[in-house]
Structure formats: structure tokens, C-alpha cells
Design goal:
With 730 residues, the protein is α+β, with helices and mostly antiparallel strands. Helices cover 22% and strands 31% of the residues. It is built from 14 helices and 41 strands. The strands form 10 sheets. Strands 30-29-28-27-26-25-24-31 form an 8-stranded parallel sheet, with helices on one face. A hairpin with a 2-residue loop joins strand 11 and strand 12. Helix 1 runs parallel beside helix 2, helix 8 crosses helix 14 and helix 10 runs antiparallel to helix 14. The protein starts with a strand and ends in an 8-residue tail after the last helix. The relative contact order is 0.09.
Length: 730
């Protein structure tokens, strides 16, 4: 019989040590999951420790014919040693791998694992806007099996694979297994038992399910269980779902033959103070919050996530975009690693009905030109996906600077763009314009919105929010516009907010936080649901609620103030100091303007749902609600007099970069701002399309978005320096 033994406790750990010959008593004792970057990977400065950490564990020989060690994730490269013998090497930090310990086991054993997250030129990821935590950050187990057993080694296989085809009201399910001997395999599904003969270690059977119960997304995520057994008693099982999918360029995503618009979020696998060493309870809480908001899809970005996450998505009915960490920068020496990681992901995740597409890459052209080598890498990935899994689609997330006629956009079955107009560059309406133009020019291509978002620090509030102020208020303005844009374009096959949760990006130092990307709808510690969270809950959830925005904007200096309510109810009533202020009928967003003179209690009510807050009037703006940096200083210039015969921050970037005198000044400032945004910002700075976009924007506009990446003093000095340079030929 198969036994799976928890192997997480009593490991010894040290950074930068050699492989020991005996258990080091003076090393730190750790329990897995574990990462050595839980603190320094989240504090900013882009200086978290990247190197080789050594894990060691002593254990007695298990009572079993064969013993395998299973690692569900070791970031990023791992070498495994047992009693001084090297068992295996695995390159890639996000998928399961195993090693056969049987030939080298003794009565008393020492297992050592060297885990390395240092930079190299072949194992992805190497450049991205998130922290590359190191460590044995997922569960480790011993798998004890009889001599005759199902396959465990090849690409971390579960040993069993299922696929189904809907035929009228029935489903025809194909079950395949792999084992180390050619013996009969007994398979049970839906009360039916069949036997399949094994040839060259492979067995195949078909089972028809009459009147099949479909896996139907969040409406009815029905799962069947398949069990496979060998004469030795080794037994494995997997859950599966029967469903059909397709994507139409004009009508969007279809599930089981009907339109099923995919509207949801992306998710990173880390938390404040914990890093990526998450437990199953952490994963469950995350997906519970996603479902609370009403999302029906999640993009698991930008790498393979724990099997527990895919299992939960199956159970909850969340449609999944699964992808490998081929991201931000193409490495000519990394092609085999992308193919390996894709093979592992499909092998390990094929049975999950929640997964509908395999993501080939994310923003790969951001830091690399679209070369033939890059294109060929994607072609091979695309062919591999279709060879291993002809029933699912392939997709890519393209950086917003990638030209829509690039050959890269035509490789995968469907595509999506990451757009940040209204945050990093440009105006909110440019998102609408981009998709309308794309849909008009490429009517036969299915297109989606893979990323969109705006950073928000919940401490920052504003009565007049602007792009780049990092306020919770502007995040609402941004998402209100994008939500309407999406609702008006049902042909977008999938849309994913970036991001569900704030996450660590140690290269970032902005918006009042160090080492954190704050585009999440929920804070990194999961304690605060930002107001924009409730906007989507109002649009997507059916559980009745009302939410008053601006609770953290308690002290207000205006004599009249806006009260915004998000609700999925059709009518909301507002009370101020216990008195009826007004009732509105509408959808999602309800707004009132009320006088503000002292301290006031505001309550929103709809049926049995209610929400309350207290706000008060104060003299003058509260400094803690805004960044005291470039944003404020740029606004001061509205009252200043500019010499039109000299350069200033009101000139377009293209003009300033054409003159060598101003180009040098502006270039130094922009380099400073990019460093505060991390490696990806540095890598994208040479992108030709990005440079063309920026050339049409004024420096003033870019400075407003830069927030605290540029100091107030630097803005004043910059404009003063530009005003000394006349607009005349040199």
C-alpha cells in the first residue's frame, strides 16, 4: 500500500554553507514551508539575499519496498543528496519533482538539499516585478510504495491522466496510467470498474458517463473521482470534471455551450512577513476572498502554483489561466528550461477542469527585442502544449508597448494585453480606444485584458484624486472607468485585475511603501479590503451588501464632500446623522454630495444590508493623507509663471530629449525614477514603442505619475534648470 509521510519538520538550515557529512547541530532548525527571504525580500532596496541555502535532515530508513522524496517547490534550482550521493538536480522553482531514494537508503540517513535562487542566464524567471524568494517553500513528503507501483519520476507526474469529450448528454472519458511493470490496471469511475492492460508501462481505458453531470464553473463545479489500482496494492486517484470550452472573437468565452464572460483577478503566492512559504490554509483564505468578491476566473501569475491552489479552483469553480515564468526578458540560453517547465506544468495539472489555457509567456518583449530566437521559443512552446494537450487553448500576455501587428501576437490561439493607460502612461480613455481599434483591425482574433490596475496605499486619501497620487480614492476612479470599459465590450474573452493582493517586489520603493507593489485590491497581510474591492463585489457578487467608500478618509477639509456607495442592490438610501438624506436607484455605484460642518455619522442602507462611518471636518488638508513629494510640487506650478522662451516641465518628452542640453538633465532624473520601480522598469526603458508613447507626453504629466519616486526638491531643481535653457539653436 502507498503511504505519504509528512517530511516538513526538523530540518537544519544555513546560508552559503557546504554540503555536510553529518547533521549540523549548530545550524538553524526550521519547519517547512520555509523561505530565507521572508523579511529582506519585502523591505525594498532590491538587495534581498540571493544565493545557495543548504537544508539537512536526518531520518531512519522507512519500512517500504521503494521510497521517493517529493518536493512540491524548491526555488529556484535544487540539488538533492542522500548519504553523500547526488540523487538529482531540478531547475525551476515552481513545480513538483521527485527522486528515488531506494538504492541509497541506510538504517540512518542524511538528506541534504542545496537550493539556489541566485541570478543565472538559463533558468526562468530572472527579471520580473516580484521577489524571487529562495527556499524549500512548499511541502516535502516521503512517498513509500511497493516494488510494483505507478510512475513517480517523469516530470513530476501524478501517474494518471484523464481527458473527456462531451457527446450529447454523455461524456466519454479517457484514462491513462503509467507504471513500472506491465500488469493489469483496475480503473474505477462513476461506479464503473474496467481493466486496462499495460504495454511498455502505459495503460489506457475509456469509460462512458451517461447523463454526465458537467463541471459548470462557479454555478456547479461538479467533480468526479477516478481511482487506479495495481495488483501490488499501489493505488492512486485524481479528481476530474467534464466540460467544454471555446472562445469566439465576437462573443467571448463559452463554457458548456453558453456565453460565460471571464471576469476576475490575478494572484501572487506571497504574504507580508511570510514570503511565499504559504500553507494550505493561506491558499484557501486567498481563494475564499476572491470568491467573496464574485470573480469567476483567476490568472495564476506568473508561475506554476501549488497543487492545493488548482484543487481549490476546481472545487470553487474558478476558471484558471495557468502559466510558466517565461517573463519580462528572453534568455537565448533558457529555451530548454521553458520547455521543461511547460512539460511539468501540463503533466502535473492536466486533470484540473478549472484550467482552460496554458500561458506561454508574460510581457516577454518588455525587456527584449522580438528576435527570431524569441519567436522560435514561443512556437516550440505552442507546439508542445498542443501535442501534450490538444483540448486546451494557448495564450500570452503582451506588454502594452508591443505593436499589435508583431508576429508574436499571432503564435498562441488567443491573446491578451496588459494595459496601464491611466496609471503608468496616458489617459483612461486610451484603454477603450486600444481595444476598439484592435477589435476593428483584427476581427478574427480573440483578445482579452490580462492585467490592469493602479497602486493604492490605503493611508492616502483625496477629495480630488489624480493619476500617480497612490490614493485609495484614485484607485476607485481608475477601476470604475475600467469596469465600465469591460462591461461595454463583452467580446473580451477574459479580464484579470492586477492584482488581487499587494505583493512583494523588493526593487520597488514608492507610494509610501518599501518593497511592495500596491496594485492589490486587498493589502498584502489580507487585513484591508480596499474600496475598489467592493466595486467589483458590487458588479460580480450576488450576496447582498452595501459599502461606504472613504472610511479611512475620516478627516476632511472641504465644506461639501462626496459620499460614494458600492452595492449590488438596485436601491440605496443614505442617512446623515440619523436623518434621511436621499434614496437612489441604480447599479454598482451610488453617489451623493453632502455638506460637511462638524462630525457626522453617515449610514447607507438597502434592505437588510447597511454600512456606517464617521467623518469630520478639519481646518486644512491632513498631511498624512497624501505624499509630500513630486505630486504636490507639480501642482504648485499651476500658479507659477513660466518663461515660454525657455524649456520647462510642461514641454513634451520628445522635445526635451531632442536637445542634448535638456536630454542629459531629463535622462538622469528618469533613471532615478526607474530605479525606484525595480529591474523591470530599468529593462523596459529601451523599448522603442514605450519611447514613442512617452515622447507625446509632457514631463509634467510623467512627474505627476512618478509620485515619491522623485523628491519635491528634485522637481523644483529640474524645472529651474530647464528654465535656464533657451529654446534656440545651439
Amino acid at each position: 500500500m502507498r503511504q505519504i509521510l509528512d517530511f516538513n519538520a526538523q530540518w537544519r538550515f544555513a546560508k552559503g554553507a557546504a554540503i555536510p557529512s553529518t547533521l549540523p547541530e549548530n545550524w538553524e532548525t526550521v519547519t517547512l514551508p520555509h523561505t530565507w527571504n521572508a523579511e529582506d525580500g519585502q523591505d525594498g532596496g532590491n538587495d534581498y539575499w540571493r544565493g545557495t541555502g543548504i537544508y539537512a535532515k536526518a531520518f531512519p530508513r522507512p519500512e517500504a519496498d521503494c521510497v521517493y522524496i517529493e518536493f512540491q517547490g524548491a526555488a529556484m534550482t535544487a540539488d538533492v543528496w542522500l548519504n553523500g550521493v547526488k540523487l538529482c538536480r531540478h531547475e525551476g522553482g515552481y513545480s513538483t519533482f521527485r527522486a528515488d531514494m531506494t538504492p541509497f537508503l541506510q538504517e540512518d540517513n542524511l538528506l541534504c538539499v542545496a537550493v539556489d535562487n541566485s541570478a543565472n542566464d538559463r533558468v526562468y524567471p530572472q527579471k520580473a516585478d516580484f521577489t524571487f524568494y529562495g527556499g524549500l517553500y512548499r511541502d516535502v513528503s516521503l512517498i513509500c510504495v511497493p516494488a510494483q507501483h505507478f510512475e513517480l519520476l517523469k516530470d513530476g507526474t501524478p501517474g494518471i491522466r484523464t481527458s473527456s469529450r462531451i457527446e450529447g448528454k454523455d461524456a466519454l472519458v479517457t484514462i491513462e496510467t503509467w507504471q513500472n511493470e506491465d500488469v493489469p490496471v483496475t480503473i474505477t469511475l462513476d461506479g464503473q470498474t474496467v481493466q486496462a492492460n499495460s504495454q511498455n508501462g502505459h495503460a489506457r481505458a475509456e469509460v462512458r458517463i451517461p447523463q454526465v453531470h458537467l463541471w459548470d464553473g462557479i454555478n456547479d463545479p461538479w467533480l468526479y473521482t477516478v481511482i487506479a489500482s495495481l495488483p501490488s496494492g499501489d493505488q492512486i486517484s485524481t479528481r476530474m470534471g467534464c466540460r467544454s470550452i471555446r472562445v469566439d472573437p465576437d462573443a467571448g468565452f463559452f463554457l458548456n455551450g453558453r456565453p460565460y464572460p471571464l471576469r476576475g483577478v490575478s494572484r501572487h503566492q506571497d504574504r507580508a512577513g511570510i514570503g511565499n512559504a504559504l500553507t494550505c490554509q493561506h491558499h484557501r483564505e486567498d481563494l475564499s476572498i476572491i470568491r467573496e468578491m464574485g470573480a469567476n476566473t483567476v490568472r495564476l501569475a506568473h508561475y506554476q502554483q501549488a497543487q492545493a491552489v488548482y484543487d481549490l479552483c476546481d472545487e470553487l469553480g474558478l476558471i484558471v489561466w495557468a502559466e510558466i515564468p517565461y517573463i519580462s526578458q528572453h534568455m537565448p540560453g533558457g529555451r530548454e528550461n521553458t520547455l521543461q517547465q511547460m512539460r511539468e506544468m501540463i503533466t502535473q495539472c492536466h486533470h484540473h477542469p478549472s484550467i482552460v489555457c496554458w500561458g506561454l509567456s508574460n510581457e516577454i518583449s518588455a525587456g527584449s527585442p522580438v528576435t527570431e530566437d524569441l519567436l522560435e521559443n514561443h512556437r516550440q512552446l505552442n507546439e508542445l502544449c498542443h501535442r501534450m494537450d490538444p483540448d486546451r487553448l494557448t495564450t500570452m500576455a503582451h506588454v502594452f508597448m508591443l505593436e499589435t501587428d508583431s508576429p508574436l501576437t499571432q503564435i498562441s490561439d488567443i491573446g491578451s494585453y496588459n494595459l496601464y493607460f491611466g496609471w503608468y502612461l496616458g489617459e483612461l480613455t486610451q484603454n477603450d480606444d486600444f481595444f476598439d481599434k484592435y477589435h476593428r483591425e483584427y476581427p478574427h482574433r480573440a483578445i482579452g485584458l490580462a492585467e490592469y490596475g493602479a497602486d493604492a496605499n490605503p493611508a492616502y486619501q483625496s477629495a480630488s484624486p489624480e493619476r500617480g497620487d497612490y490614493s485609495e480614492t484614485y484607485q476607485c476612479v481608475y477601476h470604475e472607468h475600467l469596469l465600465k470599459m469591460i462591461e461595454d465590450r463583452p467580446w473580451l474573452w477574459a479580464t484579470h485585475v492586477w492584482n488581487m493582493f499587494d505583493f512583494a517586489a523588493d526593487g520597488r520603493d514608492e507610494g509610501g511603501k518599501h518593497g511592495v507593489n500596491q496594485k492589490g485590491l486587498v493589502t498584502m497581510d489580507r487585513k484591508i479590503r480596499k474600496d475598489a474591492f467592493y466595486l467589483y463585489k458590487a458588479a460580480w457578487s450576488t450576496d447582498p451588501f452595501v459599502h461606504l467608500c472613504g472610511k479611512r478618509y475620516e478627516k476632511r477639509s472641504e465644506t461639501e464632500t462626496d459620499i460614494i456607495v458600492y452595492s449590488n442592490q438596485s436601491e440605496v438610501t443614505l442617512y446623515v446623522d440619523g436623518r434621511l438624506h436621499g434614496t437612489q436607484q441604480g447599479k454598482t455605484r451610488f453617489a451623493w454630495r453632502i455638506p460637511l460642518s462638524a462630525s457626522h455619522t453617515v449610514e447607507a442602507v438597502s434592505g437588510g444590508s447597511r454600512d456606517r462611518m464617521t467623518i469630520c471636518r478639519v481646518e486644512g488638508p491632513v498631511a498624512a493623507y497624501r505624499m509630500q513629494v513630486a505630486q504636490t510640487v507639480v501642482n504648485w506650478f499651476d500658479q507659477d509663471t513660466f518663461d515660454p522662451n525657455c524649456y520647462s516641465i510642461r514641454d513634451k518628452m520628445g522635445v526635451l530629449l531632442q536637445d542634448p542640453r535638456t536630454s542629459a538633465i531629463v535622462g538622469r532624473l528618469m533613471q532615478q525614477a526607474r530605479k525606484r520601480r525595480g529591474d523591470v522598469a530599468e529593462a523596459t526603458s529601451g523599448n522603442a514603442m514605450l519611447q514613442r508613447m512617452m515622447a507625446e507626453m509632457t514631463l509634467e504629466s510623467l512627474l505627476k505619475q512618478a509620485g515619491d519616486s522623485i523628491s519635491a526638491e528634485a522637481v523644483l531643481e529640474l524645472n529651474a534648470a530647464l528654465q535656464k535653457i533657451p529654446k534656440t539653436a545651439m
